[in-house]
Structure formats: C-alpha cells, structure tokens
C-alpha cells in the first residue's frame, strides 16, 4: 500500500510539473486552445499498467475468450502509446508485448520499438530492446539489418554488460551479412582479458562460424590461449568453439590434435580436484565441462592412433572413478562410453565401456536403460562377444512396460542371435511374440523369419519355428512369408509327412490366421496322400479319411474368415487332391459350384479346372503332379534378391555345351568395362533383371589371375550350379566370428565400410562376409549401392542390402552379405564400386581391397 501511494504521489507530481511548465510559456489564442486540449488529455490519460499487473490480470481469466479479450484490449492501448511516441513507457509496453508473444499472440508491431530501445542510452531500455530483438526478429526479416550499427557501437561500449547484450543478440539471431560485418569486433573481444566478455565472445564466434564458415581462420589465433584460462565459463565456451571448428574443417581437426594432452590435463584436474562449491553438482566437479571435453576428445581421437593412445588412460580413470549414484555421473559415463567406442581405443577399454552400458541396463531410470540399449545396438557389430555377456539382461528388457525400451531390446536381441544361441534366443523371442502388443508383432515375426533362415540348426526346427510364428502372429507377417515357407517345405523332402500333419492339426484349431491357412491348404493339396496314409515317422501319425480332409477344405471355401486369396488356395488344393484321392466325383461337384462365383478370380479357377475334367482329363495327372524342388530366385522381401558373379576359367571348346549368344554391340550398358580394359566378364544373375541394362559391371580389370582373356560370350540357356547348392539342410554359418578379425575396407568422405567374416557350414571353402556401411557426416547418404567383383578363380554372391540409405552421424548402418567361394585357397582380392547421393550430389568411387586377414581365405 505504501509503495502504490508513493507511486501515485510521484505520478501526480510529474503531471503537475508538466502542467506548470506548459502554462508558464506565453501562448497565442490558437496555441492556447491546443495547449488546453493537451493538458486535458494528459490529465485524463492514465499510466499503462505494469507487467506484473498484466500477468496477474491475465491469470484471472476463466476462459480462453476472456483471455483473448484482455490481450486485445491491452494491445490496443500499446499501439496507441506507440503511435504517440511515448518514450516514458516504451520499455514497459515492449516488456508486456514480449509476454504476450510468449503466450502465442501476435507481437510483430513492436519490432521497430525494439530498435528504438536498443538505440537508447539507458541500460534498462537496451536490455528489453535486445531481448525483444532476439524474440521478435530473425534473419528472414530485413528489419534486423537496421540493428547492425547499434550492435557495432555497443560491442565497443565502455560497459561490459552492454557489450554482453550485443554479443548475446548477435550470437542468437545474427544473419550472415551481420556476421561478416561484425566478425572483427567479436574476434577483438575474444582476445580481451575480461572473462565475462571472453565466454560470450566465444559463443558468438560459434554462431559466426556456422553462418559464415570461411571466417573460421579469423578466430584461429585467438584460440591459442583459450584453454589456459582458469575460469570454467571461458573453458566451457572455448571447448564448444573448438568442437565446432573441428567438426567443420578437417584442417582444423588436424591442427587441434596437438591440444589433446592439454585437454587430458584439464579433465584430469577436474576429476582429481577436491570439493569446489562454485562448480560442484551432486558431488562432481563441473560435469558440463567434463562432458564437453569428452565430446571434443572423441572428435580428435577418431581415426587417429596417436591421439587415441594419449587419451586412453584418462578415459579409463573417468570410467572407474565417476560416481554413478546420481544422474550427473551417469551422463559423464555415457559420454565416456561414446568416446571409447568411437576412437581407436584398446580392447580392454572397449570391454569396460560395454560393461558400463550393461550396468545402465540395471538402472531404475527408464531413460538410462533406453540410452544403454541404443548404444549397445550400435556397438554389437564391432564388439559382438562383449555384448553377448549381457544377453540375459537384454532379454529381460523385453518384459519392460516402456514401449520404446521394448522395441530397442527386441532389435538388440535379434542382433545378438548367432548359431550358438539360436535355440535359446528364439525361445525368448517367441515368448515375447506371444505376449507383445500388436505394434511389435510384425517386426518381431520378420526378425524371427530372418534369424531362422540364417541360423536354423535343422530343417525340422526351422519349420516348427515358422509354424509357431504363423499360429501366434499369422495376421502380422510379411506378404512374402507364405511363398518362403512353401519353398522351405518343398525343399525338405524328408519332412513332407510331418509338415502336412502338423499343419492339418493347426488348421483344425484355428482358421483365423490367413497365412497359416494358405500354407496349410497348399501342403494338404500337395501331400494329402501322405496325410491320409499316416506315414509320419517324426511323431505319432493321426488317422484321417479323405472325406474329413475335403470337409476341412470345403469349410475354408465357405468360411467368412477366409479372404479371396485363401479361397483360391483352398480350391486349388481340392483340385490337386483329385489325383491323390479316390473321391473324384465329389471334387468335381465342388469345383463346378464355383464356376458361377461372384469372385472373378475364384470363378476363373473353377472354369479352368472344369475344363481339365471335361476336355483334358488325360492331361490332369501330369498337370497336377507334385511340385519339384524350387530354387529360391526372388522374393518380395528386401534381403533375398541375389546376384552371383560366377566367372570360370576358360576351357577348351566342347560341342556338348549349350549354344553361346554373343553380346550385341549396341548394348554397352549391359556389360561395361569400368577400368578401360577389353575383357568383359559376364555376370550370372539368379533373378530375372528388372531392366535390360545396368547390371553388375566388370570391376576387375587387371585383377584376373588367369593368363588368358575372358570368354567373349555368355551362356544364355543354362548356368553352372551355384556354389551354395545343397547347403539348405545344414546350418548356414559357424559362429567363429572371433577367430577372424574384422577389417576396414573403405574409409573416405565420411563413409566407412567394415567387413566381418564367418565360415559357411559344411563347406569351409565358402567365406561369408558381412559389410557394415556407416556415415559420420551430418547428411544421409541416399541411393547407396555396393558392388564387388573378384578374380576368375573365385565365385561371388551378393545378397541385397538392408537399406539404400546410410543414416547420418552414425545413427545406424547398412548391412549386406557377400558369399565368396575360394576352392583353391588363394589370397582373396576384391574390387568394389560405391555409388550414392550425398547432399544432393551423386558420388561414385572405386577401391581395391587386398588386405584380407589370412584366416578369411586359408
């Protein structure tokens, strides 16, 4: 009450003084009338309410409409004050306008008033003016260019706080034009001895470099003494500046690598220093500075042996001495782990980092568990065995209530699957598939299919696993799961009776899972005679009659749960049984009924089957005989499109060979010698090409190990048996990854290609190479294509990649499997071609890989 009374008294006194000043001036008659109007208006015009009162009034609004009405009324008063050029309350009005802007209401009409406040000599006006400029202006508006001269004057002001306001504003919203004009002033302040100004100038320099990268060298001399500063604020902002410069320029990165010992010394002092109340956060000395230094060390140590060696000891100290009871310590440990995994650190240090992530998985904080799972997923390819030690903890995360943790745990679990743990991991993942939410079932089912196909210990286990998925989540599986399972069953000749019996039982229990019903219908149509005869040896045979089997299939045709595709499978199965069962008349009646079906597809099938019975009955047994063993040539999935490079040594001509077709000269795109040689090596492709040209090209050139030239023509009628034929009944890989060390095949322009190795089972002449493509740049690499070729004494098979986009900043990787047949145990040599699009520009590069580890080819 006393304050408000004093305020009212001062206002009254100010008005009285103004009135007396006006009245003391001699005026003409006309001027007297104007002055009288001015005095009356001035007396009647109330002072604008303060910001605090406006906030209190707005908070009393009960509805949104009432709040809008208050805002509109106050905005009208502010506009009137602006039109009258009221300098007394301009600062107060702009402050209220900024509050309205924070609430989401338009405040653009106050932009010029902010510039007037900036030009004021009062610090309070400048403070509100610069704050308004940072909130209401950006570089897209030309008005901000009017500030350039004011900011330049304030950067040279005698008061450090005014200089600080100008630095903050320039570092927040300065455009490239402003940064070019004022970079010299910022660089001058970066060299000052005032720590308050140096830390603000360092952050402003970061913004200048981001806007105008070519000005980076201007700040290089000023960075020499930044790390010797004792003030933690200056150290922090200096590390941020150095990080920005290293990330944007390889030359700067090389230049600043000599600062690694100094950074290590600063970090060690932070760890070993005692309690400092000014910098202590939960018992840890300045964790923000520690995190920034660790991040800079990660950039400096990447792909550099000397720098990595210099920081190994301090990283081990940070990892072992940091307290983990508080979230602050966990943040430092996480940054330490990222640094260890990104530099060329020692193997023991990498194991320590993964063990830290394993401890994170036991933390009660869900965010820490999610971070640990994400980090382990990135490192599982390079440190597979170390991550395997935490497999049980990772599997336990599948039971977490948090959806994001479940998804990360599922992805990591599939990444951990190998030939040794396939049974146990599939048991856990199938249990997860039973109980998980519908949003996980599709991805989990696809993962189980791929893992079972790659590591299945036996055909029976493979079939049982796929059937378990179909019975549990049949409605969520991919479209290609049905033909893939049919192919698997067809190729497993010894399992036909067992499979058809299992599928028949599953069909009796549930017909709602359409993929399961489709596979069951197909198998009953193919192997219905084995089902009726009861010849199953793997389990106790069931007694089924022909009529019971036909009743089940007819029930599928009539069921409301059956889709048109399922009905087509069922009708075809019934037709096939006409050559396996004796109930031909009943089958004829069923087929004839659907000759008038409203489903066009079903009607067409029935009409054609009726024609078989009537006109071509003598051909029916041959047309409906069992399908032969199918070779897997193509798939709708992303991992099954196969290309082979099966060059063979030239041999003497043989009249029994199939006719050869010479390549026409006008199809240069089909087979193009990339290296300028005359030998064009043919590529045998196991899938039908989508277009006439652009197939895998000759990457070998002078790599050929044979003396003679390549064959001038390619076989067009037949092709040699592929190197992996006959392996389908055996586990595909042995888990001996640890025996063959991984290698880096390519590292250029931010793209890194790593090879990991496995041996195919049972043929030791086949090396299975998995490529892992990662991208450390800030932009994704799209349309990524990896091609490879080997000398003629080898055979090469390329599976399709997991994706054609390599994510930026190591956020993921693209994997692709290469199978190399090396019957003569010669040293492996390979030439690769990489094509991709980066930042809108196409990139193409060739590389030769000759440093394969001896274990991969001996």
Can you give me a brief rundown of this structure?
This protein is an alpha+beta fold and 858 residues long.
Provide a descriptive summary of the structure in words.
By secondary structure, the chain is α+β, with helices and mostly antiparallel strands. Helices cover 51% and strands 10% of the residues. The chain is built from 33 helices and 14 strands. The strands form four sheets. Strands 3, 6, 7, 8, 9, 11 and 12 form a seven-stranded antiparallel beta sheet that branches. Strands 10-13-14 form a three-stranded antiparallel beta sheet, with no helix packed on it. It has a two-stranded antiparallel sheet with strand order 1-2. Helix 6 (111-118) runs antiparallel to helix 7 and helix 17 (327-342) runs antiparallel to helix 18 (347-360). It is elongated and about 105 Å long.
Which SSEs are present, and which pair or pack?
Layout: H1 2-23, H2 29-44, H3 51-59, H4 64-83, H5 90-102, H6 111-118, H7 123-136, H8 148-155, H9 160-173, H10 176-190, H11 195-211, H12 232-248, H13 250-256, H14 260-272, E1 280-281, E2 284-285, H15 287-301, H16 305-321, H17 327-342, H18 347-360, H19 366-379, H20 384-388, H21 391-396, H22 403-416, H23 422-435, H24 438-455, H25 459-473, H26 481-491, H27 496-509, H28 514-533, H29 546-558, H30 564-576, H31 584-593, H32 600-614, H33 620-623, E3 642-645, E4 660-662, E5 713-715, E6 733-734, E7 743-748, E8 751-760, E9 766-775, E10 781-789, E11 795-799, E12 814-821, E13 830-838, E14 841-849
Antiparallel strand pairs: 1-2, 3-11, 4-5, 6-8, 7-8, 8-9, 9-12, 10-13, 11-12, 13-14
Helix pairs in contact: 1-2, 4-5, 5-7, 6-7, 7-9, 8-9, 8-10, 9-11, 10-11, 11-12, 12-13, 12-15, 14-15, 14-16, 15-17, 16-17, 16-18, 17-18, 17-19, 18-19, 19-22, 22-24, 23-24, 23-25, 24-25, 26-28, 27-28, 28-29, 28-30, 29-30, 30-32, 31-32
């Amino acid at each position: 009450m006393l304050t408000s009374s004093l305020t009212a008294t001062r206002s009254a006194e100010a008005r009285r003084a103004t009135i007396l000043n006006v009245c003391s001036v001699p005026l003409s008659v006309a001027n007297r009338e104007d002055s009288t109007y001015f005095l009356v208006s001035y007396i009647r015009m109330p002072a604008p309410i303060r910001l605090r009162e406006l906030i209190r009034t707005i908070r009393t609004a009960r509805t949104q409409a009432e709040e809008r009405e208050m805002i509109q009324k106050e905005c009208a008063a502010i506009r009137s004050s602006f039109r009258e050029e009221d300098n007394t309350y301009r600062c107060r009005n702009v402050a209220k306008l900024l509050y309205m802007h924070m609430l989401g209401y338009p405040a653009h009409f106050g932009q010029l008033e902010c510039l007037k406040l900036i030009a004021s000599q009062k610090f309070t006006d400048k403070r509100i003016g610069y704050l308004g400029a940072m909130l209401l202006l950006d570089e897209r508006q030309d008005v901000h260019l009017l500030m350039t001269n004011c900011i330049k004057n304030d950067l040279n002001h005698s008061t450090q706080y005014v200089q600080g306001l100008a630095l903050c504003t320039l570092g927040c919203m300065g455009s490239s034009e402003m940064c070019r004009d004022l970079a010299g002033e910022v660089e001058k302040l970066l060299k000052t001895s005032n720590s308050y100004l140096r830390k603000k100038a360092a952050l402003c320099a970061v913004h200048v470099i981001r806007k105008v990268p070519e000005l980076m060298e201007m700040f290089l001399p000023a960075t020499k003494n930044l790390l010797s500063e004792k003030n933690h604020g200056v150290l922090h902002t200096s590390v941020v500046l150095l990080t920005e410069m290293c990330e944007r320029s390889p030359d700067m990165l090389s230049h600043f690598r000599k600062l690694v010992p100094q950074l290590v010394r600063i970090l060690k002092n932070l760890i070993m220093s005692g309690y400092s109340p000014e910098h202590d956060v939960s018992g840890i000395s300045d964790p923000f500075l520690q995190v920034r230094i660790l991040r800079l060390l990660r950039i400096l140590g990447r792909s550099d042996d000397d720098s990595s060696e210099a920081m190994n000891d301090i990283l081990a100290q940070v990892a072992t001495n940091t307290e983990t009871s508080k979230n602050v310590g966990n943040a430092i440990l996480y940054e330490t782990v990222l640094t260890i995994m990104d530099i060329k650190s020692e193997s023991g240090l990498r194991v320590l980092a993964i063990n830290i992530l394993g401890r994170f998985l036991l933390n009660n904080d869900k965010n820490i568990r999610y971070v640990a799972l994400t980090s382990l997923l990135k490192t599982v390819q390079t440190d597979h065995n170390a991550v395997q030690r935490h497999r049980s903890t990772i599997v336990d995360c599948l039971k977490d209530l948090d959806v994001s943790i479940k998804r990360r745990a599922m992805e990591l679990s599939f990444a951990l699957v190998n030939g040794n743990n396939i049974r146990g991991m599939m048991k856990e993942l199938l249990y997860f598939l039973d109980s998980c939410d519908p949003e996980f079932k599709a991805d989990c089912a696809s993962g189980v299919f791929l893992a079972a196909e790659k590591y299945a210990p036996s055909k029976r286990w493979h079939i049982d696993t796929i059937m378990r998925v179909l019975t549990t989540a049949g409605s969520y599986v991919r479209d290609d799961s049905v033909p893939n399972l049919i192919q698997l069953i067809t190729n497993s000749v010894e399992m036909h009776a067992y499979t058809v019996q299992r599928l028949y039982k599953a069909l009796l229990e549930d017909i709602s899972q359409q993929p399961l019903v489709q596979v069951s219908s197909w198998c009953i149509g193919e192997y219905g005679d084995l089902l009726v005869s009861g010849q199953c040896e793997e389990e106790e045979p069931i007694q089924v009659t022909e009529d019971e089997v036909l009743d089940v299939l007819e029930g599928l045709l009539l069921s409301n749960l059956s889709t048109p595709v399922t009905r087509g499978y069922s009708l075809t199965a019934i037709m096939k049984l006409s050559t396996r069962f004796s109930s031909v008349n009943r089958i004829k009646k069923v087929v004839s009924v659907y000759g008038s079906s409203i489903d066009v597809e079903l009607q067409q099938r029935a009409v054609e089957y009726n024609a078989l019975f009537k006109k071509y009955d003598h051909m029916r047994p041959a047309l409906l005989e069992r399908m032969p063993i199918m070779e897997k040539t193509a798939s709708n999935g992303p991992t099954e499109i196969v290309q082979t490079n099966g060059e063979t040594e030239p041999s003497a001509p043989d009249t029994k060979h199939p006719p050869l077709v010479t390549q026409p000269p006008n199809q240069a795109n089909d087979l193009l010698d990339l290296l300028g040689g005359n030998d064009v090596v043919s590529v045998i492709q196991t899938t039908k090409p989508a277009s006439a040209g652009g197939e895998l090209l000759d990457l070998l050139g002078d790599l050929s190990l044979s003396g003679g030239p390549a064959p001038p023509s390619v076989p067009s009628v037949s092709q040699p048996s592929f190197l992996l034929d006959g392996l389908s009944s055996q586990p595909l890989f042995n888990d001996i990854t640890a025996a063959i060390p991984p290698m880096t095949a390519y590292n250029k322009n931010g793209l890194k290609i790593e090879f990991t190795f496995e041996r195919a089972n049972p043929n030791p002449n086949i090396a299975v190479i998995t490529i892992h493509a990662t991208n450390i740049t800030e932009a994704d690499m799209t349309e990524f294509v990896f091609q490879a070729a080997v000398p003629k004494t080898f055979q090469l098979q390329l599976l399709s990649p997991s994706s054609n986009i390599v994510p930026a900043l190591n956020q993921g990787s693209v994997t692709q499997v290469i199978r190399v047949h090396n019957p003569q145990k010669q040293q492996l040599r390979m030439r690769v071609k990489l094509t991709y699009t980066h930042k809108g520009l196409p990139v193409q590069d060739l590389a030769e890989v000759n440093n394969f580890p001896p274990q991969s080819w001996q």
